[in-house]
Amino acid sequence: MTQQGIITTERMDGPAAVRAADAFRLVYAEAFAEAPYHETDEDVAAAFRRFAVQTRKPAFRAALARTPGGEPAGMAYGWTLAPDAVWWDELTEPVSAAMRREDGRRTFGLIELAVRGPWRGQGVARRLHTALLDGITAERVLLKVHQEAGAASAAYRAWGYRKIGEARPPGAGADAGGNAGADAGTDADADLRDVMLLDLRR
Question: What is the signed CA dihedral for 130, 133, 134, 136, rounded to 10 degrees?
């Protein structure tokens, strides 16, 4: 557990994240109700039905930021992609076989990262990102971000991510990847995501 300023950031495994699911849900629901996501109560309920399954993945990990009073300020979670991960199939243009190769260890998928409004602009997202990735052995991190989420995209670029393609909105299955922004949407043209990659070997 690390503390910077007034925010405490805790990394969690799957069982711990399940116990803190209400905190993750509060952050998710508040952050993704905003533009450009516009997630509804039904969207949030579906996301947290998936969350209950996702936390059982062996490589699942999460991070939760709280105030000194225990109020959730932000959250992030993800897992190492399996060899048969569907993420690469969602791209609008194919990438090379070398790029899309997965072996169950190579790529960490950053599924969601969000900070509630009152705590934005204070470095909380970066702390969550750092806590989530601390100690992982993956070569790279992959995420999808809504193309209209300009602040999020700018932050990822500042952290070293680069765009490698575009993807359609993910499916609704338990293995569906998020986009470190939101994972709902039905109009593939309106809701394209930028696929971004961070090389950890540098």
Answer: -170
Task: Tally Cβ neighbours within 10 Å of residue 76.
Answer: 28
Contacts of 142 by beta carbon, 8 Å cutoff, 6+ apart: 81, 87, 107, 108, 109, 110, 195, 196, 197, 198
Q: The tokens 């711990």 sit on which residue?
A: 16
Model confidence pLDDT, tens digit, residues 65-74: 999 999 999 9
Q: Are 125 and 113 in contact (CB under 8 A)?
A: yes
The Cα-based distances of 68 to 9, 19, 65, 96, 173 in angstroms read 11, 19, 10, 47, 36
Which amino acid belongs to residue 124?
A: V
The values of phi and psi at residue 194, to 5°, are: -85, 130
Confidence of residue 168 (pLDDT cuts 50, 70, 90): confident
Q: Please name which of 136, 134, 128, 78 lies closest in space to residue 106, comparing C-alpha atoms.
A: 136
- Terminal CA-CA length for the chain: 26
Angstrom distance (rounded) from CA 94 to CA 97: 9
The pTM assigned to this predicted structure is 0.89
Report the distance separating Cα 129 and Cα 136, nearest Å: 12
Helix 41-54 × helix 21-31 angle, to 10°:
140
